[in-house]
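Q: What does the assembly look like in three dimensions?
Context provided by user:
Components: two
Sequences:
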Amino acid sequence: MTQPSTLQTTVQDVISALKDKPGALLPILHGIQDALGYVPSDSVPSIAQALNLSRAEVHGVISFYHYFRSTPPGQHLVQVCRAESCQAMGSETLEQHVKTSLGIDYHETSADGKFTLEPVYCLGNCACSPAITIDNDVYGRVTSAEFTNLIDELEKSL
Amino acid sequence: MSFIVYVPSDSGAVSLGANRIAAQLATEASQRNIDLTIIRNGSRGMYWLEPMVEVATPTGRVAYGPVKTNDVSSLFEANFLEAGDHSLALGVTEDIPYLKKQQRLTFARVGITNPISLEDYLAHEGYQGLKNAMTMTQADIVAAVTDSGLRGRGGAAFPTGIKWNTVLNTPAEQKYIICNADEGDSGTFSDRMIMENDPFVLIEGMTIAGLAVGATQGYIYLRVEYPHAHRALNTAIQLANEHHYLGDDILGSGQRFQLEVRLGAGAYVCGEETSLMESLEGKRGLVRFKPPLPAISGLFGKPTVVNNVISLASVPIILAKGGEFYRDYGMGRSRGTLPLQLAGNLKHTGLVEVAFGLSLRELLYDFGGGSATGKPIKAVQVGGPLGAFLPEAQFDTPLDYEAFAALWAVLGHGGVVAFDDTTNMATMAKYSMEFCAIESCGKCTPCRIGSTRGHELIDAIMQGQELDKNIPLLRSLCDTLLNGSLCALGGMTPYPVLSALNHFPEDFGVKS
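A: Here is the predicted structure of the complete assembly.
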């Protein structure tokens, strides 16, 4: 994990690189989350100051968008698509299997810190439903058995 | 002897293992001392055949699919590099009926070219539209788009030329072109396919839009769920800049157009154009009141064209071949072609670009091949999560904006999601309300509170509680959402809810 001092340096670097763009707040938040995996609450004052916004405004933006996290995710982020096309192809069964096998519900991180589970509303992979992502990889036509295999592979590498 | 094979880089194909297939083809070829070039093309959009491998032969490309990693050895043994027979052999790609029956204008290059090769784009009639546009006056470019009859493919179907004309005629020192690439509607993926598989066509369309209305800055507002598209667009933009198709001096004309991709952050409502602009300005994605129209006061208060990916990606062919060429396709006031997306419980899911006018039934059965599970199709939802559910009795409706509107349905962005007869439509209606509650921006009361009340109400109805009271209450609530919401999120959630209730009352415990 990143140490607090380097964490602040990372935040400052991202802010300095992007603050002069028009409408810089979202690019900055993306930059921080890309680097750290989340947007730490103590980065809010620095962002607010750089963009001449109130801390409330910055916090308001972070909390508005589902994608931005204020807490670090687990080592692997699993997203299951809950949208209609995936539902039509049995995503609810898959959803239950994912929750049971990871032992967590949506928006939770497993106690060992290995997995975070989030819902997602469409990955644009509707022709290959049901779809999920694990970290940066998208998987289509996922069965419960395949999900178990994917997770077993990951467990081995952890 | 050297051979060329094509393995799609499209994220859908990759989600089914295309990268592993490509790697294994390379390994096996080197073990067999075969000189093999693997080109990562786009997907042809026949997803039930993905990963689909194509081989270049003297008589055209031949296809094999769906290829699994353990098929690779047997493909080599069957001499697939010289079109050898194999159980996965599909013959000449272009002759596969699903493709052959289509009229691909916007998707002309998709699946054929290497998406991130400018050379390939130019070799396949790329940038013809821009070259023509550079010899025309701004008013003539706008007139060509107006003449084509192109209407906004994002869902609202507003005439693109009229929007451009308003921006052209609004004086300002700065104007913007925004591409709405926040394709959040479930069951839709045509924007994704264009951006991943032919990003230059979108860049060319935006550049033409910029020249037409006098905008020098463009933004592609891309949903964060599309990382493949993000990479493809950034690579293509960089190449276009290096070769002066973008930048300060486009093709030596002295005209300027800069383009940047901005990422959304998982908010469905940011697909609504005013909410999208708030987000681009770095704010919460709250919907704005209209008027003023974005064409007059849009991004940072400046005149702004906001168009969907497919609208903009259709512009190059219109400028290359003329407005009339495009207008000759289609029916009634729906001109040109619509890239439809077959999703959900269908045997042959994928991308079907055809002229308006085909019936929904032809689309579902002739292209889609019926349900994947083999059970009867109970309903289809057309036009995303805010689109109506259509029962079997309405399947003969032609794919046409007005014909759908007459049924109190929408064609929207062309997404078609099929459900078989195991689906409970009350559950689907409840999900529509739940989705609206999760994604509401919170600015207007009908959407913010109505969606949660609607979710609770359908829950009560599904438990059989006071149907005499609760069904009329649900209808009344839908009426409030429909007429009292600021934008389409609250305003259209009643479409799936009421269509489910009207066509499938028995699923709500109501005797039909």
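Follow-up: Residues 445-462 of chain B form the longest helix (18 residues).
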